[in-house]
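Possible regression after last week's pipeline update?

I re-ran a chain I had predicted before the update to compare outputs. Posting the input and the new output here so someone can diff against the archived version. Not blocking, just want to make sure nothing changed silently.
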Amino acid sequence: VRGKLRNGPGFGDLFPGIFASVATLNIVFAVPFWHEWLLAHSFVSANASCLKRILTTPGRSLCLIPGGAAEALNSHPNSMRLHIKNRKGFVRIALMTSASLVPTIGFGENELFECVQNPEGSWTRAIQTLGMKWFGFSIPLFKTFMPVVDPRKPLTVVFGSPMHMEKVAEPSQELVDITHQKYLEKLKALFESHRVEAGFGHVEIEFV
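New output (post-update):
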């Protein structure tokens, strides 16, 4: 995310004339001073009205991670487990605003920081899940204390072909489901097309 905003992977060169913002949890904007820092670095609130406003503004683009807090708890090396199977709100908003959906995969994200193992059913996962329900965000447990500096590891970001949406003021659930399934198929195809080249031929993608 940070690299995209600062043109690290060449986002501005690949998509000239597009100003990208990153959507994040509403609750983080309630923290004094952090609120100003987020706004200064192009972060926006992930509420529906804000997303619609940005997507209907010419020249604006939006980076959204549908899996959010739940997905962060499954960030472990040599895995690609995405919490997206039942996350369909972003598809509905895309249909309502006629915004194109661009499948995107980041290879190497889970390798940047190593987290404590927290399998389903463990006390660690139970406490993390409870905290997520209470506070609205998850707290991955890093093996190193407060990693504030990124380790020098490769990160490959690949963009798929955009899925152009016809504007539908009130999309039906059937249309949302069909479009969401097409998006998942394109996301999986994008992963399969680049995983070997990116050095992750041994990793399988999983939608949960």
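Follow-up from reviewer: compared with the archived run. The CA atoms of residues 109 and 155 lie 6 Å apart. Marking as no regression found.
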